[in-house]
């Protein structure tokens, strides 16, 4: 018989925490590491003027990869030229016609920022907020404070797929902070304190290849928890982890059997913002071409009152 997965409370009992570091009312955590100094330094990385919006397409006819319990966004057309021909169409002076539509979407479907309070264990969210503050909507550590401040800084792409000489990482494939350091060294880019870390796996290519079968035995590749990895993220004062996978980390830890350990160790405990499901293909091709893996990064999720996450189209400029 296999051992049951340990409880996160036990697994992370000695793990580093940033609770209280920015005061009892803080709701943006390690994003506090990004101030004017980091913004100005990041602006100095703009050299060619090439712009890369890295959001995935909402309503992509090829499909939208989402976490298994979620559904892709549905866009509905409400007004178009055919509507304006009907008798009950609204009428405006001067012959005005226009198109209207709406989307019904999970706030964490497609490319998104997680709120720091999005995941928890032991009844406490980021900064020690009571988990009951999530009932009916997030009263603490929602996505709103992240949206209100925005995220701007130096980012570094770590192309783990190219580093491992693959088109894409495979299901359940893991990597560590030591792999990130080795990947940066191979790419010739320096990893600095307070960098926004952007990791490419190209794993979601499999979703577009397999369709619904992608969700059979779902286990994404990604960072794997270890106390050393969490300490490295804490020591490096990483403000934001951005990846092209749905959940930024290996779905279920192959050693402990625990799901989404790093959501808790990095986001809940250290206050590191998570950005998921970005599309890095054009950016990565450009980086492979010019050998420049550092760049200016700016993002602000949509301002959603009490939201546990929100869609975003981060902009990278080289
Ligand atoms: C969960 O935490 C379940 O999902 P996400 O990938 O949006 O963080």
From TrEMBL:
Which organism is the protein's source? Janibacter limosus
Q: What is this protein called?
A: Cyclase family protein
Return one Gene Ontology term, BP aspect: L-tryptophan catabolic process to kynurenine
A Pfam entry, by short name: Cyclase
One example of the protein's molecular function in GO is: arylformamidase activity
Q: Which InterPro entries match?
A: KFase/CYL, KFase_sf
